[in-house]
Amino acid sequence: MTKNRVLWIIQILLALIFLFAGGVKLVMPAAELAKAAPMLPVAFLRFVAVCEVLGAIGLILPMLLRIRPGLTPLAALCLIVIMIGAVVVTVMTMGVAMAIMPFVVGLLLVFVAHGRRPITA
To answer: Most buried pick, 18, 27, 71, 111, via CB within 10 A?
Structure first.
């Protein structure tokens, strides 16, 4: 399997993860969202949800449509920032073992950002 195909598979899986995570946070009632993450304000969680959905779109559409494909690694880099925060919050609230999943997602985003970076002469 070529590197391009592996990158596409990872990008699609990551986009689905972020669309789901962001979508759930956007449709969840504020009271439930506040219970799920009591240490963070609901407005901040909604902001993160919008960033996750936009990041998911950014992982796929620029490369798929071949319009500004340099936005794909940028979207991956922005989602890495979100995943760093997710790892920190997860470690603080649930322990290190539960932070493995967001850490692995972050590593996959690093792979995508590196693999899709623009090649300069």
So the answer is: 18
- Cβ–Cβ < 8 Å for 26, 50: yes
H or E, element range at 85: helix 71-94
Distance CA 45, CA 56 (A): 16
Read off the pLDDT of residues 66-114 as tens digits, 9 standing for 90 and up: 899 989 999 999 999 999 999 999 999 899 999 999 999 999 999 999 9
What phi and psi values does residue 68 have, to the nearest 5 degrees? 55, 55
Residue 33: domain span = 3-115
The pLDDT > 90 percentage for the chain reads: 84
Q: Is residue 120 part of a domain?
A: no
